[in-house]
Amino acid sequence: MEQTMNKTDRPPYGIIAVLMIGAFIAFLNNTLLNVALPSIMKDLDVETSTVQWLTTGFMLVNGILIPTTAFLIQKYTVRRLFLVAMGLFTIGTLIAGIAHAFPLLLAARMVQASGSAIMMPLLMNVMLVSFPIEKRGAAMGVFGLILMFAPAIGPTLSGWIIEHYDWRMLFHFVTPIAAVILIIGFLRLKDKKEKVNISLDFFSLLLSSIGFGGLLYGFSSAGSRGWDSPHVYLTIAIGVVSLVWFILRQLKQDRPMLNFRIFKYNMFALSSAISAIVNIAMFSGFLLLPIYVQTIRGISPFDAGLMLLPGAIVNALMSPVTGRLFDKIGGRILAVVGLTITTVTTYFFSRLSFETSYMSLVLLHAIRMFGMSMVFMPVSTNGLNQLPKRFYPHGTAMNSTMQQVSAAIGTGLLITIMSNRSELYGKELAASAMQKMSGQPTEAAHSEMQQQIALEAMLEGINYTFFISAIIIGAALVLAFFIKRAKSEEEKQDETSSSKQVVNKLAKT
After folding, report:
1. By C-alpha distance, which of 95, 124, 127 is closest to 109?
2. Left if phi > 0, otherwise alpha if psi is -120 to 50, otherwise beta: which for 330?
3. Of the ranges 82-96, 448-462, 495-509, which one carries the lowest mean pLDDT score?
4. DSSP string of 221-276?
């Protein structure tokens, strides 16, 4: 691919456009299903713990396949990978739309995930190869617009469809669009690639699958099962052992499946750490706000989705702006300002009450997402900029993998913190209420008191978890001060060569 997309050529806008539309549909699908889960439970007669596998299974397949994308991108052409990825996604969507049994729906969802897992690393790699560093921020900003806007409209669109149609319409809506994109890709995508003589180490693939799969499943299950469940600590332990074995094996290989040597580049390592920390804390907003507005405040799911929409749109629209700013001023100022805003707004979310107004929530969430928009794309792009071209596939695969793992850790960690704090505070409130109570309360009064204690305890748990999230983001803010504008080895060599040419010309004159 480097032969057809080096930085001296005009970027392949046709290829990028097709890839972006495909990625948009794949990202949109990630959030479409969340609102539909209650309807699926009722229609297919499954419990909450079962239906959650539609999201957990999707995430697991992503976590297992994404580490292999570094190998796939080096081995095969963009055209071939896109057609396989979009083909799998389309087939999975089609089957899901006609599924009348949960196992078939789950299998279709996993087929979808196998296609979706390839899309993001593939698109990011094409963007890195196609644009020089001085224009890469603006290009990544447009990519960020696609990445953020699709999940932004997902819940609202899903809520409207579920309100008027059967949940299967979510898949029927996406299927023809995915099929058209697949046909366009088949007709329009053309790129050449020299034959690459590399083979996949299947034992590394096994270790990677067990390692990342174990971590993702373990941390995702911690919120519902508890940390003392064998499902949680055994799968995490197996995942850690397999992952350490996988890393050691990769470090000994000349052509590893996923190259962990890229962490020797300090700006890439720093960007990965900041992104992972922020991603862990970011899920406080996605997880806790819907619980607060629906369970404690009694706001409808559709209105809860609308509450989050302005912030998501702000985040999406800011991506091209922050991309251009990144090209001009670099990543440090953007990251410091963005993380400061995010830390402060997250702290304010730790002071929620039963009287907090709906508009205050909308505004605070929008400002928080405005801060977030200055963090992820500039920080990750700065880190990738330091890598030599041969490491781009490994860098994009590593970033996507870290995103999946940190999201699972964030989900398990934050739900656990909220549950533990709520339980502890609930016991304190119950003990205090019993001491103040005179005489034996009626059954109705006792039931009302328990309900009020449960709501107050949950509110305390949510506030405390937001406070912990603010501290976590504060740690990322400290790290952001160490960001420097990154340059790859090729860029440094070009600058040295240019400097020598200037010196030689001056010497001749």
Report:
1. 95
2. left
3. 495-509
4. HHHHH-TTSHHHHHHHHHHHHHHHHHHHHHHH-SS-SS-GGGGGSHHHHHHHHHHH
d(CA 396, CA 413): 25
Nearest of 272, 283, 488 to residue 376 by alpha carbon:
272
- 299 is written with which tokens? 């706001």
Q: State the sign of the Cα–Cα–Cα–Cα dihedral 217, 221, 223, 227.
A: negative
Distance CA 168, CA 33 (A): 10
Tokens of 283: 């899920």
The C-alpha atoms of residue 409 and residue 158 are separated, in whole angstroms, by 26
Beta-carbon contacts of 300 under 8 Å, excluding residues fewer than 6 positions away, are: 294
Is pTM, for the whole model, over 0.85? no
Quick check: 376 and 274 in contact, CB under 8 A?
no
Going from N- to C-terminal start, the domains of the chain cover 6-190, 201-256, 265-435+447-503
Question: Which tokens sit at 418?
Answer: 């909220």
Q: Which of 401, 284, 391 is nearest to 342 (CA)?
A: 284
- Separation CA 246–CA 205 (nearest Å): 9
In contact, 120 and 81? CB cutoff 8 Å? no
Domain 265-435+447-503 has CATH 1.20.1070.10: no
| Residue 150 Cα distances to 146, 160, 302, 353, 358, angstroms | 6, 15, 17, 31, 24
- List Cβ neighbours of 497 (8 Å cut-off, separation of 6 or more): none
Single-letter amino acid, residue 48: T
Q: Which amino acid is at 61?
A: V
Quick one: how far is CA 17 from the chain centroid?
22
- Give strand ranges (E) for 84-225: none
Strand stretches in 42-142, DSSP E: none
Sign of the C-alpha dihedral, residues 157, 162, 165, 166? positive
Q: Are 374 and 338 in contact (CB under 8 A)?
A: yes
3-state secondary structure of 84: helix
| Three-state SS sequence of 171-200 | HHHHHHHHHHHHHHHHHHCCCCCCCCCCCC
Q: Give the CATH number of domain 6-190; options: 1.20.1250.20, 2.30.30.40, 1.10.4030.10, 1.20.1180.10.
A: 1.20.1250.20
Question: What pLDDT shows up at residue 88?
Answer: 94
Q: Residues 410-465: pLDDT tens digits?
A: 877 887 888 888 888 888 888 887 777 655 666 776 677 788 888 898 899 999 99
